[in-house]
Amino acid sequence: MEQIQAIIQVCEDTDGILIVDKDGVILHQRTAMNYYWKAEETAGRHIWELYPGLDEDTSTILRALRTGQAIYDQRQEITNSRGERVVLDATTIPVVAGGHVVGAVDCARFYVVGQRIVRGGRRGGLSTLDRIITRSPRMEELKRRVRSAAQLDSPVLIYGETGTGKELVAEALHSEGRRCGSSFVSQNCAAIPANLLESIFFGTEKGSYTGAVTRRGLFEEADGGTLFLDEINSMHTSLQAKLLKALEEKKARRIGGGRDTPFDVRVVVAVNEPPEELLRTGRLREDLYYRLGVVRLSLPPLRERPEDIPLLTAYFIEQYNRSMKRKIRGVTPEVAERFQRFGWPGNIRQLRNVVEGAFAVARGEYLSIEDIGESLAGWSEGSQAGAGAPSQRSPSLPEAPISLSREVERYERELIRQAMERWGSISAAARHLGLSRQSLKYKLQKYDL
Predict the structure, then answer these.
(1) Structure letter (DSSP) for residue 231
(2) What is 117-300's CATH topology?
(3) What is the pLDDT of residue 155?
(4) Of 233, 246, 248, 294, which Cα lies nearest the Cα of 268?
């Protein structure tokens, strides 16, 4: 107990503390983040139950238990049992009694939990301009504009198709600016039900509704730093009005609360459809658009920057070689040619997913057509030329007036239904459609699938 108390005193300023027994079973847990694991959810569970992707080598806890050696400030990027990406620095110190390791204390500084970036700055693992890989003149010009905009505090609106890297640009705006030492908080507005968005934005007070607990909102979490709102066009216009009011007044009130809390936040938002179309159809309030779009950045789709395809392919191969402990040397000439012809409707995210999927089946030194065949199956030559859609018979325009948005939704619903029937899981279907898993979950709810 003296050892444990001494370790905890050293780690008092960290975000989370875990105490485990000699087998890796959690005896005690404490975290400063009220939206992460609660003590009652973790006690009595093995560390593998919380982080199933870890093994005896990649887990600092299991390694310290096995070797009896302390591990300090090791960066870990892992996925928890909820499917959330977690980036943290872990310090794990074994507890020794009678010459034997009887447990360990693990202290962690969290940087990323799911869509929330808990701690920003250059140690926070956020993207910088140097990490945006490109040879494209358009992208180089975009990076120049990002570098200039980062020095301002003005709101920024980013437009780009799904998978073009909008969050990387938002992170770079934060990392290159004066707020880089403060929090960067990211929220995908399409990834959570509409009835929960308001409480997540503004926070709640205990008892404000059944089951409500006292919880800070996004503005409070991002105070002093940057708040990034992705797919803001999915937000209902009534909540857009409340968001505009909070931004104008620079203060927010928790649901059930009796006072306003001032905040100092730089707001960066992103949309995956042309802003003009969102304004025309009424899905984005005009007053909010002009309030947020002081600086506007547009990301070109991958099909308009083909010179970056070989560069990004090599980068993803290097990444997966490290994480999967493989030695893939590149792609065959046939694959390189097909990648250049393909339209990449899911953009960079789709390219990354195709490379990852090929790694799962590849047996040679180079990724072949056979390795990528399943990932690109179902896409026509039209999409390879840049149309960006699965092979379908061209629709004919009816004589009677139609609602274009409803027809597009009906088409999208059918594609998603077919993808789910074919692949059987959200993750696989999302990779095939070039969507994030969160976006597909939202669309499944939207279309009642």
Answers:
(1) S
(2) Rossmann fold (3.40.50)
(3) 96
(4) 294
